Amino acid sequence: MPSLNVAFMHARQSSLSIRGLGNNPASDGLEGSAGIYLDNVYLGRPGMAVFDLLDIEQLELLRGPQGTLFGKNTTAGVLNIGTRKPSFTAEGGVSTSIGEDGYVQNQGSFSGPLSETLAGRLSAYRTRENG
Length: 131
Fold this sequence. Notes:
- The protein is mostly beta strands.
- The protein is 3% helix and 50% strand.
- The chain has one helix and ten strands.
- It has one helix spanning 67-70; strands spanning 4-10, 13-18, 21-22, 34-38, 41-43, 56-63, 77-83, 91-98, 104-113, 119-128.
- A four-stranded mixed β-sheet has the order 5-4-7-6, with no helix packed on it.
- Strand 1 and strand 2 (13-18) form a beta hairpin.
- The longest helix has 4 residues, at 67-70.
- The radius of gyration is 18 Å and the shape is flat.
């Protein structure tokens, strides 16, 4: 995405900036000016979005002040992440990754009807490493 810069050292020192404005990874006490939303829920720190996200349907980068739609901490813009909705058609998938030092990652996602009028989606992952 043009004009988006994401830096990740670890969960406490991660930053998101849009057009050079954003979060300061050097200070936990300062709130950023680039908001991150996951399914319309505000994530107060960039590190809250640093995990494996399964079933991503849409990524939106909204540049410029977004205070009218999203509230405070959005003067630089918003990264809006949307996940897939449950479906009434049964679907699913599983993947496994294996690497060095005992690295094993399992991911799975399943969706389908729970009743005539209710559908659900379950996504899970697990990562293990000995190193």
